[in-house]
Design goal:
Blueprint (H helix, E strand, L loop, with lengths): L1 E2 L3 H12 L4 E7 L9 E6 L3 H10 L16 E4 L1 H10 L3 H7 L7
Antiparallel strand pairs: 1-2, 2-3, 3-4
């Protein structure tokens, strides 16, 4: 179950993906498979090659991409990797809102 983001934020994420940009969105999330995680960051792009190349920067493997028929294929980032990516990509507000790690701006 996802919550903590608006429809306009989701639309903006999808629009960036559709335009071939690397798009990042984070939201609260509950999944019994991951009891120690309460949020997820999704990093997507319609250009899978570009997404794969972006992922290699962070040690992500191509086979970890969640391929979606609707065109919004993405990596799901949790825990330490989520915090690392948000920090390095400059998403401090999301890091502070959704992750246990906190950074002062």
């Amino acid at each position: 179950m996802a919550f903590g983001i608006s429809k306009s934020q989701l639309k903006k994420w999808k629009n960036k993906i559709d335009s071939g940009e690397i798009a990042i969105i984070t939201h609260f999330w509950i999944d019994e498979r991951f009891p120690n995680c309460n949020s997820v960051t999704k990093v997507g792009c319609c250009n899978i090659e570009k997404l794969v190349n972006w992922g290699t920067i962070y040690g992500l493997k191509e086979e970890w991409i969640h391929h979606r028929k609707d065109g919004y294929s993405h990596f799901d980032l949790l825990g330490d990797k989520q915090a690392e990516v948000l920090l390095k990509e400059g998403h401090i507000e999301e890091l502070n809102k959704f992750c246990q790690t906190r950074i002062r701006e």
